[in-house]
Write a structure and sequence with these properties.
By secondary structure, this protein is mainly beta. Strands 4, 5, 7, 10 and 11 form a five-stranded antiparallel β-sheet that branches.
Length: about 500
Amino acid sequence: MCGCGVADTDTDGDGIANCIDNCPNVSGVQGSPCDDGNSTTTNDALNASCVCVGTPVGCTGNQVTLTLNTDANASQTTWNIVNSGTTTAVCSGGGYANNSTIALNCCLPNGCYDLRVFDSAGDGINPGGYVLRDAANNRIIDNASNGQNFTTLSEVRDNTNTPVSFCVPLGARTIDQGCDAMNLVISSSLRCSEDPLVTAQYGYGVNTDDGYQFWVFNPNGGYSRRLFQSITSPGAGWPAGTLAWNKPRYMVLSAMSSAPTIPQFVLLNVRVRSRINGTYSEFGPACRFKIDPLANCQTTQLTTTATPIISCGATNVSRTSGVLWSNMVSGANKYQFELVNANTNVLLRRLASGTRNLNMSSWGTAIALPTCGIPYNVRVRVSFDGGTNYCAYGATCTVTFACPASFSGRGEVADNTTSSELQLWPNPNRGDEVTVTIDDLGANVGTATIDVIDLFGKRVASETISVDGANINHVFSLNNDIADGLYFVTITAGDKVFTQRLVITR
């Protein structure tokens, strides 16, 4: 039945192979007769979720079905649907089998109600959950596989712990962009289906009361918020070229970033309704979604191509005005650059940028700048929610920053330094003796101090010498105690400081 190379597997043993069975784990297919175990229903059949559901006998109102997935302690789980703002139960139940899927029907007159699911042990339904649907199988509240995220009560409530009701019958507006997406970011947009009656209002009056209202809520409680967007005030999130009457159909999630703030990493439901001439329709079916920036994680690193420049492996980058570039990550709104001294493995600093480039001028204080002339390991990571959560770092690149013409050895440029008159030879040097000469000190001084400073600002050699007149010609002994590498020789004479690089190599 399944064709060459495909096993005719029949998981439920109903004689219909899985490849052509739309209910492979339940005997029968969608629409097949069954028995829901409820004597008050008739015409029981497998629905689109492969759950046996019957029609309540004599229901002249709105049939809703609660599909409950129990855990290993189903005796702890009960439920009821009460009239809005009361504790008067219209339907209720409990005492179900462990680890089972049970379809529970309830007939509701037109009106508004609260669904409450209880767990007497205070540990929710773990694993498990529930979905409330209408007779057309539209979701009203979707808390499937999310029962572990409540304790004793699961109910739609706002941040003040006030119940928020659902109403039947449902409206027609649906979410057609972002529905059931579990990897959205705060800059993502939801879009609802168009209401022709809203569109027809465009150009008539001021259109401030024509548009769409989005309702986002946590089915387990703690968050419920509604946001209306009109044709004249459509908010944001719509793509370029969107027609004016369609703009309010898009709601960017960041529009709910003010208090009460839309939660991240939480399964949420969203429903929408239209508003025409100030009159709302009823909310349509529910979709669920989750803001999970880390689900979109990508790693990045410094650029390795000339787009716009090669930053990975770059040398002589100005430590005060240079720019480091990262590869672009689509949708990322924050890039964090990490610099670690490659010689000591000591973290220098992490600095974030709203774009993929880091301008060294943004570091501010000179003392925090990288030391010139030594390599730094640089990594980059990105965030999709403005830096609240970051993805993992990408590959490491080595960058060396350019030394300024004069250097005080403490990560900063001395205001009164000069190097044009200081000469060192031989340079490069073998580490034994170096001759230092200055032709004109600018004034007669009696003494001068010679310091040799390494790249970490540590003084490795020093000598105070007598000066006769306004020049210096002195042989300075290094005593072969200095390791190979780059150093700075500074001579302080009166109020003058002279600096020059010295390379030791043997």
